[in-house]
Design a protein that fits this description.
Rossmann fold, flat, Gyrase A, domain 2, Four Helix Bundle (Hemerythrin (Met), subunit A), 6-stranded mixed sheet, alpha/beta, nucleotide-binding, single chain, TrmE/GcvT-like, 3 domains
Length: 486
């Protein structure tokens, strides 16, 4: 069975890598420089045919040269050529890069020229990285980290993706896998050699203790409150409150553009209006929701309120907007907020995710403002009209985002993909089955083959994360997220 799997994997690699591929690794459209990458066995012939260099270029050193059409010998451009001989290249194959001017006609002529070489074709999305994966240059977690790094839009996302692309998450999973493999080896050694007394009787107990340690590591890793996934996908934040308290004004203020319509008419916002932001380096998806109130007879507004409540249920963070002009005294503030939350239908769990924003503070008298400001440990004071209090609100919001997403520059790598979480849970279930069977079954009746079966399944689960166990469907999904030139 192993020989068959090895043969099939090798055959697939040979079929994939038989062609020489090329693609644009820089951005599409007119630009100063376009980078066209070529990878495969025809790379050396392409260099010889498309340049007039007297000697073959030295590895990893840029050479300024004229670049010609491979078939017509017409000059296409004058640019840089870099030669990366395999296996010391990104893909593990002979690779070249042409750095030419980024005009559309030049890139088109380069494509047309490269396509004339035998068994040379344009790369599929993510095919360069896929070849690097099959060449053992990176595992799946590093591939996913590289994809996240390319798509990162905020500083915190960049830091998390860079750590994963550099293999820090891979090291953690491979360490767990090594511990499991060692436990399997110890148990199998006990099975094979215990009768000859070559293996100590405490081998089993030591293996069980090691597995208990792995279980603890897995539980701690899974108990991360989904910080890594929030950081990767964005913190879904609902702006919620009664009609006409300034929710739409707040989203417009945070975005510095007119995202939502603002009028004095209550119930203007009917549907969820989403917009993406970078707040303190963290990705935030702000959702302006319909004003929550009871007793409306407007069918469209009722649907908007229902959608708002559903959005609030799934949100990671709530910005609860309160009309500060309705609060006259500090004593009245607590009572008003309690009644306000009951009216909106917000329970204790929702309030634990809420950051309270007292808006329209410009309408307060100076005395009331001062009295309320003494309690700003619990609330953020803001005037969307004058922008007073905005820096303080952003700082408080960033603090909450750090709590929700963590700090990727100092914390251990966290789970960033739902795929990882699923396989880790499966791995944990296998290890707990191992533990329960071992403890519940007495030594005379214990079948150690069953024990190792659970451990092998746990190893396979980790292998599905790193790519040690190949699953074609998973690979196709992952690599399809890359652009052509990567």
């Amino acid at each position: 069975m192993f020989v068959k799997q090895f043969f099939n994997t090798t055959l697939r690699q040979t079929v994939r890598n038989s062609s020489t591929i090329f693609g644009l690794s820089s951005g599409f459209g007119k630009c100063g420089v376009a980078v066209i990458r070529v990878s495969g066995s025809a790379s050396r012939a392409i260099v010889d045919k498309k340049t007039r260099l007297k000697s073959f270029p030295a590895p990893r050193r840029a050479v300024l040269t004229k670049i010609f059409h491979g078939q017509t010998n017409a000059m296409i451009d004058r640019g840089l050529l870099l030669w990366f001989p395999g296996p010391q290249s990104f893909t593990g194959e002979d690779t070249i890069e042409f750095h030419v001017h980024g005009g559309t006609a030049i890139v088109s002529a380069m494509y047309d020229s490269l396509a004339t070489f035998p068994d040379t074709r344009i790369a599929e999305p993510g095919e360069f990285t896929k070849r690097a994966f099959y060449a053992g240059k990176m595992d799946l977690t590093e591939v996913e980290g590289l994809a996240d790094l390319i798509h990162a839009e905020t500083e915190a996302q960049r830091k998390q993706a860079l750590r994963q692309a550099n293999g820090q998450l891979s090291c953690f999973y491979n360490d767990l896998r090594t511990q499991l493999v060692q436990a399997i080896a110890s148990i199998e050694a006990y099975i094979d050699f215990a009768e000859d007394q070559d293996v100590d009787d405490n081998v089993l107990s030591v293996a069980v203790q090691n597995i208990e340690g792995v279980i603890g590591q897995l539980k701690a890793h899974l108990n991360d409150n989904r910080r890594g996934e929030r950081l990767r996908n964005g913190v879904r934040t609902a702006i919620v409150g009664a009609p006409n308290v300034g929710k739409s004004s707040l989203i417009n203020l945070l975005s510095q553009r007119n995202v939502s319509i603002v009028t004095s008419i209550a119930g203007t916002t009917r549907d969820i209006v989403e917009s993406h932001y970078d707040i303190g380096g963290y990705p935030v998806i702000l959702g302006d929701t319909a004003g929550l109130r009871q007793g409306t007879e407007d069918v469209v507004e009722s649907e908007g309120i229902a959608r708002a409540r559903a959005y609030v249920e799934s949100a990671d963070l709530l910005l609860l907007v309160v009309d500060a002009s309705r609060v006259e005294t500090v004593d009245r503030l607590d009572t008003y907020l309690r009644e306000y939350m009951e009216t909106l239908g917000l329970d204790a769990d929702m309030m634990s995710r809420a950051l309270i924003v007292l808006n329209k503070c410009d309408l307060l008298t100076s005395g009331t403002w001062e009295r309320l400001s003494a309690h700003n440990n619990s609330f953020s004071f803001l005037s969307c009209q004058t922008q007073s209090g905005l820096p303080e609100l952003l700082e408080r919001l960033k603090t909450r985002l750090v709590q929700l997403c963590g700090d990727p520059s100092v914390e251990s790598p966290t789970i960033s993909q739902e795929r990882h979480r699923y396989h880790l849970k499966q791995c944990l279930a296998c290890l707990e089955q191992f533990r329960d069977y071992f403890h519940e079954t007495g030594a005379p009746n214990r079948d150690l083959a069953i024990v190792t079966h659970h451990l092998r399944n746990a190893v396979r689960c980790i292998g599905k994360i790193t790519g040690t166990v190949e699953t074609e469907e998973i690979l196709d999904v992952i690599f399809s997220t890359f652009c052509i030139g990567k």
